[in-house]
Amino acid sequence: MSEGEDKEGDSLNLLELIEEKADNFRYYLRLSGVSAIARRYFIMNAFDGAVTILGVLIGALIGGGLSPRIILAAGIGAGIAMGVSGFFGAYLAEEAERSRSLRELERAMHINLNNSIIEKAARVAALTAALIDAVSPLMAALISLTPFMIAIIGLISAWQALISSIALILVLLAVLGLFLGKISGERMIIYSIATTCAGLITGFLGLFLHVIFSW
Amino acid sequence: MSEEVRIKRIVIDVLKPREISIIDLSRALCEAYGADNVSIVVKEVDAKTETVSIVITGTDVDYEDIVETIDEYGCAIRSVDEIEVYKSSEKGTK
């Protein structure tokens, strides 16, 4: 066999291996039923991320420091903190829950389930939930902060960035609500209004902060 | 000419977690060496487990391979209920 054919065979084997791993991964996800949990985590934490950035913006506005640099740094810092806390929180909680149900199953079956597909699926589920829990708030924070990234380049002013950022957050919250409505299969608008209201409530509570600070 | 005893049909009683579907389990068992046909019947359903009867037929069913797959899927063999073997003069290709 020539060297070229050899290399082609190797890449084919690699492709087959990747395909096999992807199939296993999909099977583990299906077996562990993590998709529904992951969906929940995604929405809950993206929601957290967006509302937190709204809080940072209102805080900066009341504090009088509307510097795009500081807002961006504080916002990304909060996003990273939510990501790290999300990862560890979700991983440890999922791992604890799943290892408890695994031990219960082991007791019911009188066998050791280590290295079985069920145990592997539980590990994959905990890790997937943790990754989604980590990425979703960070992603929501970064999307919400996009206007301030543009402001740093100097294309828009800090005020324009603030207004577009708040608008972006409200749109993001509305989209998350629509997504929730789609999952429930009904009342998409109601869910969307409810999530947007959470943003508006944050804004109103921010006004109280303003009253306290101006005292 | 050396002759080899091979398994033609085996019926095993297995306890499996409810999460594992019999469709996935039967597919995995049918991929075992020498298995041509697999049928599974659910006999009993509990809160977390199911007792199933698995019938595997083929020209040279590899019992070790079957046990390995059953372990991998987190199932436990409770008993071997039926077995049918035959003598073959052909050499196995395993």
Automatic annotation (TrEMBL), chain A:
Recorded superkingdom: Archaea
Residues that span the membrane, as ranges: 41-64, 70-93, 124-156, 162-181, 188-213
GO molecular function: manganese ion transmembrane transporter activity
The UniProt record lists the keyword Transmembrane helix: yes
Keyword annotations from UniProtKB, A to Z: Membrane, Transmembrane, Transmembrane helix
A GO biological process held by the record: intracellular manganese ion homeostasis
Membrane topology label: Multi-pass membrane protein
Pfam families in the record: VIT1
Entry GO terms, CC: endomembrane system
The protein, known as: TIGR00267 family protein
